[in-house]
Amino acid sequence: MEKDPNNILDEVTQGEYKYGFYSDIEMETAPMGLSEDTIRYISAKKNEPDWLLQYRLDAYQKWLSMTEPTWAHIHHPPINYQEIIFYAAPKKKKEYSSIDEIDPELIETFNKLGISLEEQKRLTGVAVDAVIDSVSVKTTFSETLEKQGIIFCSFSEAVQKVPDLVKQYLGTVVPTHDNFYAALNSAVFSDGSFCYIPKGVRCPIELSTYFRINAANTGQFERTLIIGDEGSYVSYMEGCTAPMRDENQLHAAIVEIIALKDAEVKYSTVQNWYPGNKKGEGGIYNFVTKRGICKGNNSKISWTQVETGSAITWKYPSVVLLGDNSVGEFYSVAVTNNYQQADTGSKMIHLGRNTKSTIISKGISAGHSSNSYRGLVKMTKRAENSRNFSQCDSLLLGDKCGAHTFPYIKTENKTSIVEHEATTSKISDDQLFYCNQRGISTESAIGLIVNGYAREVLKQLPMEFAVEAQKLLSISLEGSVG
Amino acid sequence: MLSIKNLRVSINGKEILRGINLEVRPGEVHAIMGPNGTGKSTLASVIAGRDIYDITEGEILFKGKNLLDMAIEERASEGIFLGFQYPVEIPGVSITNFMRTAVNEQRKYRGLDPMPANEFLAKMEEKKQLLEIQAKLANRSVNEGFSGGEKKKNEIFQMAMLEPSLAILDETDSGLDIDALKIVAAGVNKLRKADNAFLVITHYQRLLEYIVPDIVHVLYDGRIVRSGGKELAVELEEKGYEWIKAEIA
Fold first, then answer.
1. Yes or no: domain B29-38+71-248 corresponds to CATH 3.40.50.300
2. pLDDT per position as a tens digit, A193-212
3. Chain segment A23-51, per-residue pLDDT in tens
4. pLDDT at residue number A170
């Protein structure tokens, strides 16, 4: 009569990775392994100024003296950094001015991902800076943005175009020695996005970038720098999917955000790197450092993330609240399935007075996966009358997965208030029966309940992303969809 | 429409229903009354397909099909609706979204395309007006933070949206004040048609003043011990269940 609920859970949580394909594009790669020569090769390829080469070399020296962190609730075999290709770029013919000039294979890849570089993006108000492997291929709408003085381009382009801005802010939020992976990124970062919103400008469109790993054995080291000048506003979206590979691939990105006085930066991301197969083989190792600083008074930085991919996610988007009355927000949904491991959360460092932060974290675990929230809320002596509210919820599907919460709270003054709430729940049989009785299949019911559970976070996403994210949550947990 | 023959049901080895026979025809409203713990809710759950019971004997046919072979959602799509005694909360899922999913999954089962959004919203509006439900209800999460009365109204609203052939209302009157009871009953009466049927499960006669049944059954100790017209409900109310117990002893 009825299927065994445990079997249904097994079925719906074993969906194959929908974006597992590999496109065959001519690549130009650095020699395998990491040395000063590799770094010089990358820097020369990108025609970088000497200060940037020195920055990389300095980071490399620091990295050599550091060791991988072991405090996270994750396990993986040791990574051999000498077996990684640190730079790969599609072979460059010339600058692209029209879509016809772009490798048809590449266009096909984008189409499979549902990314359109066509003019229809204009209708939806999205400018796309598409990054495949390491080199930014095409930027749309930059002209529209240029008129307002907004700079939105690949990181390498920014190094050539606005070197002073890059030099002024690079590494000011995440210093080269911040952590092992940050040092590695600082030494070998390939490309990424750069965004500068001038004083008083409200960016008229959502800025979006799609990242994608595409070459075997190529680690990806993205570098993103976003600067919101005084009184500006920008909503920036980043999303990614990766093709199916057998070997583990390392991904160590850095995102730095600087919000000056009265500025607001909203950063949204959907992360869907290849999670590995049902047995836990393959998949991306995602060690990311994302941090923003509310540098000026009354500034605001908001992180929203939907994490469904990667074999391992190690990621703590944080905000340093330096300016008085500044606001930091972190909204997260992290889904782990099969043998995925996620150790993710946020840090809110309150330095200014009357600063406010919010952390909403929703973990969803299925299969044999492990899902941990790790967060730090720090109220320094100077951060009088500051507030934090943290809510960390875990939803378990099945009985072989794990959810963990590691909140750290430090308060050094007596006028600040820190609140922390945490819950762990399961989808109840009563909920499933109720949905089934209305004609809703168990698979759809789980999708519905999970999306409802994550709604508080999903509603923070820009509309077009929210729809995509909802689908992704269902796909990540279902077998039949798509 | 619904035909139950010699249905015997146990849970954890304990027999709850001991040979139920029941015939429900289109257009009829049946009331099932009885003291607490006699198997009324079990009967409702078994018809809907809840799988925590052992069906040891008997059959349930619905429109000629063997209901016991069908999954819960298939029964629902065939036209069986259960108004729950204790509706569960589904946090973060709006009633609109929940109903749209339910309506479209049922349509899919029947080989129909999803209902166009504008048509669906118009239907929501129509049913809300029919049942005098406030507009804001539809944007709230399913049953989350609802009062007892709101939960029951929401059940009736869902019934109106799904237009079942057979609606089973399990103790819909429990926890309702008289005003809420009247609204719920008025809603049910508006939805009565020649081609649908209702199975109203209740402990008290009160609800039956507003939803007038064609046939009243008394369920006691896992059996239907007496059936009759609506006057049976009144008699029960006057004499109490002790009367039935004495009668059958």
1. yes
2. 899 999 999 998 777 654 44
3. 555 566 777 778 898 899 889 988 999 99
4. 96
Q: Inter-chain contact B93–A451, Cβ cutoff 8 Å?
A: yes
Contacts with A153 (C-beta within 8 Å, 6 or more apart), sequence order:
A129, A136, A139, A142, A161, A193, A194
Question: Are B156 and B187 a contacting pair, CB within 8 Å?
Answer: yes
CA distance B85 to B83: 7
Measure the CA–CA gap between B139 and B116, rounded to whole angstroms: 19
| The predicted structure's pLDDT at residue A127 | 53
Question: Which of A442, A449, A456 is facing B90, going by the closest CB pair?
Answer: A449
- Residue showing tokens 């390939």: A190
| Average pLDDT over every residue of A49-68 | 94
Could you tell me if A158 and A151 are in contact, meaning their C-beta atoms sit under 8 angstroms apart?
yes
pTM of the model: 0.81
Q: How are beta strands A341-350 and A135-139 bridged, if at all?
A: unpaired
On whether the CB atoms of residues B73 and B101 are closer than 8 A, the answer is: no
Residue located via tokens 């330096």: A322
A-B contacts at Cβ under 8 angstroms: 80
Structure tokens at A455: 């709604």
Contacts of A60 (CB under 8 A, 6+ apart): A34, A36, A39, A183, A187, A188
Measured between beta carbons, which residues in chain A are less than 8 angstroms from residue B158?
438
Give the residue extent of every domain in chain B.
Answer: 29-38+71-248
CA-to-CA dists, residue A463 to A77, A186, A233, A270, B131, angstroms: 39, 33, 17, 13, 33
Amino acid B115 reads: M
ipTM value, please give it: 0.96
Out of B49, B81, B101, closest to residue A444 by CB:
B101
